[in-house]
Specification:
20% of the residues lie in helices and 46% in strands. By secondary structure, the chain is an alpha+beta fold. Keywords: Signal.
Length: 245
């Protein structure tokens, strides 16, 4: 991935040098470059700020959303609700439920907690190391249709590889996957939705295969007054080996 980025930077430098030559010939380069910079829309510039807000261990935010999930392009969407937040102290909380967030999952102090507030109970496990963390890089500003409207979005992406076995069950194959995040912002600068995509890279120039899509339609977003209780486990809650279903 770093090699690809280095190549991309080299290409950008070549274009920059070419642009300087054109400027000397026709004097039109400055205006052309200014026009290119202005093509990044208002929504795109604001989306960049939301990306900075919601990423990083020291981030401080809390949002609620109506969620639509699909395992692939053919499956029917599954509807639910979600709340997510960070408190600036390295704690990440994701709460989910059918009609309201009921089950909280907390990453805190190298441990993973699953909390059922209705049972006043929780489980505790060691936080597993999954290797390299996802590092999202800005890739494009584009448009997509959602809820009968065309939205401008910024897209951030990471690329990773997973090993698997071929059809014979013995041959080891390495597949490339993409994790993508899109921030859709309205004309007022409010975050309308976050679209999360996981795709398997297509072979021989074919389109990527969608393996997961999540759309979080934001209903509430706070970047300062985050609810403290959301990040805590009350003292009267009991630790159990398994939560009741």
């Amino acid at each position: 991935m770093k090699k690809a980025i280095a190549i991309a930077l080299s290409v950008c430098m070549i274009f920059a040098i070419s642009a300087c030559g054109n400027k000397q010939e026709n004097g039109e380069t400055d205006s052309a470059q200014n026009q290119t910079q202005s093509q990044k829309t208002f929504a795109g510039r604001v989306a960049d700020e939301y990306h900075k807000l919601l990423e990083g261990d020291d981030a401080v935010y809390y949002y609620e959303a109506n969620v639509s999930e699909q395992m692939d392009e053919e499956s029917e969407p599954m509807e639910s609700v979600k709340a997510e937040g960070r408190n600036g102290e390295g704690t990440l909380v994701v709460a989910t439920g059918e009609s309201e967030p009921e089950l909280r999952e907390i990453e805190k102090d190298d441990a993973y907690y699953t909390i059922d507030d209705s049972q006043k109970a929780y489980t505790k496990d060691e936080l597993e190391d999954y290797g390299e963390e996802i590092e999202l890089e800005y890739v494009t500003t584009s448009e997509m249709e959602l809820d009968g409207k065309t939205w401008t979005y910024d897209e951030y992406q990471d690329e990773y590889e997973l090993e698997g076995f071929g059809e014979d069950g013995e041959t080891v194959e390495v597949d490339t996957y993409f994790y993508k995040k899109r921030y859709l912002v309205d004309d007022k600068g409010d975050l309308y939705a976050i679209v999360i995509l996981q795709e398997q890279k297509g072979e021989d120039g074919e389109e990527n295969q969608l393996i997961y899509q999540e759309i979080d339609r934001i209903t509430k977003l706070e970047d300062k007054n985050v609810p403290e209780a959301f990040f805590e486990i009350p003292e009267d809650y009991q630790e159990v080996e398994m939560l009741d279903e």
